[in-house]
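Help needed: design a sequence for this.
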């Protein structure tokens, strides 16, 4: 009933539709990048970016932590750097994360360090679900452990998400 000419025309139409969709998608991406130049929606952090330093705290009573919602989905240590995969809502303002720890350790075998992740969303009201990997240089924690224990060893990291009373599980093993 349908000849080869109909099939050829059908394939051409499909190709044109696909090109139209690709063109529309490209236009949308360009428009979004022009409308939101402050948001790094299309460029994730480079693994070559320097890691942030863990902030050492003398007394937790003197520190006010920002507790905007963020969920830790993965935590691991590699090469003296803690990698935290976090998810949070936003997309319209710059979000600031900091990681705090004290100079003392919990008495256990192995010893444990308490770390608190701080998240300041800068009143971002947008609802995009953002996932990023935060990187923290553990050198200050390593130096505190060497002073406390005198030799290389292992510490368990009790990492508390912003505003939470329970640490991320499982505890992260840090060998220094």
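Sure. Designed sequence:
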């Amino acid at each position: 009933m349908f000849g080869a000419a109909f099939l050829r025309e059908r394939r051409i139409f499909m190709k044109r539709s696909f090109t139209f969709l690709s063109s529309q998608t490209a236009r949308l991406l360009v428009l979004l990048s022009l409308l939101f130049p402050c948001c790094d929606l299309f460029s994730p952090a480079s693994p070559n970016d320097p890691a942030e330093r863990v902030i050492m705290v003398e007394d937790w009573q003197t520190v006010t932590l920002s507790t905007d919602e963020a969920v830790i989905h993965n935590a691991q240590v590699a090469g003296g750097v803690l990698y935290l995969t976090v998810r949070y809502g936003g997309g319209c303002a710059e979000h600031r994360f900091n990681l705090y720890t004290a100079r003392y350790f919990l008495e256990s075998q192995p010893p444990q360090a308490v770390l608190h992740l701080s998240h300041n969303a800068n009143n971002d009201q947008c609802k995009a679900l953002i996932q990023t990997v935060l990187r923290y240089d553990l050198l200050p924690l390593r130096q505190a452990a060497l002073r406390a224990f005198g030799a290389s060893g292992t510490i368990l990291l009790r990492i508390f998400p912003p505003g939470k009373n329970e640490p991320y599980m499982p505890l992260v093993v840090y060998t220094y």
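The longest strand covers residues 81-90.
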